[in-house]
Amino acid sequence: METIIALGRRKAAVARVYVNEGAGNITINNRPIEVYFPSSILQFIVKQPLTKLGVAEKYDIKVNLDGGGYKGQAEALRLAIARALVKINPEDKAALKAEGFMTRDAREVERKKPGQPKARKHFQFSKR
Asked: Average pLDDT of 24-47?
């Protein structure tokens, strides 16, 4: 099997994933997943598509993660892994889509507007 490449995005985070056959190692920016994401919840989010299909020990995954915060990075990585698994085996798409792993979460931060303290908040109005 040649290297499968996939991309995942969430908020400002971008995850580029390179999947090869292997022993189930996940390396993020040249660090193991346990070092990069110390939180077990974030590790769980990243591994969700692999555990859903039961292939967690079958592939080695190398990841380049950039931008955003740790939660956005974890969700971008989940999307990238799901897309790579679908490239490997297209029949898995229905199972991953049912869990919501194939959907790009398009919500972004709204920009701050001039004359306001934040995107939607307004300064207090004073009549006099």
From this structure: 94
Distance, in Å, from the CA atom of 81 to the CA atom of 64, rounded to the nearest integer, reads: 12
Residue 110 · residue 57 · CB < 8 Å: no
CATH T-level assignment (fold) for domain 4-99: Ribosomal Protein S5; domain 2 (3.30.230)
Strand pairing of 13-21 and 4-10?
antiparallel
- Sheet of 59-66: strand order equals 4-10, 13-21, 59-66, 26-28, 31-32
Domains in the chain: boundaries: 4-99
Residue 48: per-residue pLDDT:
94
- The pTM assigned to this predicted structure is 0.91
Measure the CA–CA gap between 67 and 61, rounded to whole angstroms: 19
101 Cβ contact list (under 8 Å, min separation 6) = 48, 49, 52, 78, 79, 82
Q: For residue 119, what is the DSSP state?
A: S
Q: Tell me: pLDDT of 128 over 90.
A: no
Closest Cα to residue 62, out of 108, 16, 117, 99?
Answer: 16
